[in-house]
Amino acid sequence: MIFVTVGTHNQSFERLVKKADEIAGRISERVVIQIGHTKYKPRNAEFFDFAPREKMEQLNKEARVVISHGGAGSIIFALQFRKPLIVVPRLKKFNEHVNDHQLELAKQLEREGKLITVYYIEELEKAIASAEKLLPKEYEEPPMVKIISDYLIEVTK
């Protein structure tokens, strides 16, 4: 199963939801998408708006691959389950967020070998195909929390 999450941010993330739904229409694997505030409703994948933490945990555990927006909370949550993680950062230029902090965080964690970052949505299917080659490194909460904390302090200066 492929699990896609866009988090709880109040801006739509149609770019990711539409592409994941398009891919779901071409593959036999089950795709579940948490769409948040996105107006587009998938036609080829299972979907829901929001869910309690327990359901999100269950879906992360069941997934073969997790695809997430670039929110720190969603990334940390997904990394705990040591599943291949693909991150599609929300971008300011598409009116998906107020700035590009998700892109910066994803780049840093990709350099550390923790995830795959999709910079162009057209690359998502290719990233899914190569995701199993990514064996996520052991989740180490203190260093990860420090990286995120340091980054958030820097961008809010």
Concise overview:
This protein has 157 residues and is an alpha/beta fold. The chain is 39% helix and 13% strand.
Detailed description of the structure:
This protein has 157 residues and is α/β, with parallel strands linked by helices. It has one domain (2-155): Rossmann fold. It is 39% helix and 13% strand. α4 (101-111) links the parallel β5 and β6. The longest helix has 15 residues, at 141-155. It is globular and about 40 Å long. The mean pLDDT is 90.
Q: Layout of SSEs?
A:
Layout: E1 2-5, H1 14-24, E2 31-34, E3 46-48, H2 53-62, E4 65-68, H3 72-79, E5 85-87, H4 101-111, E6 116-117, H5 124-130, H6 141-155
Parallel strand pairs: 1-2, 1-4, 2-3, 4-5, 5-6
Taking Cα atoms only, what radius of gyration do you get, to the nearest Å? 14 Å
Query: Helical amount among residues, as a percent range?
Result: 25-40%
Large-scale geometry: globular
Unreliable residue runs: none
Q: Classify the beta-strand content into a percent band.
A: 5-15%
User: How many beta-strand segments?
Assistant: 6
Strand order of the largest sheet: 3-2-1-4-5-6
User: Span between N and C termini?
Assistant: 40 Å
CATH architecture: 3-Layer(aba) Sandwich
Total number of distinct structural domains: 1
CATH-wise, what's the superfamily? Glycogen Phosphorylase B
Which oligomerization state do the chains in this entry correspond to?
single chain
**CATH fold call:** Rossmann fold
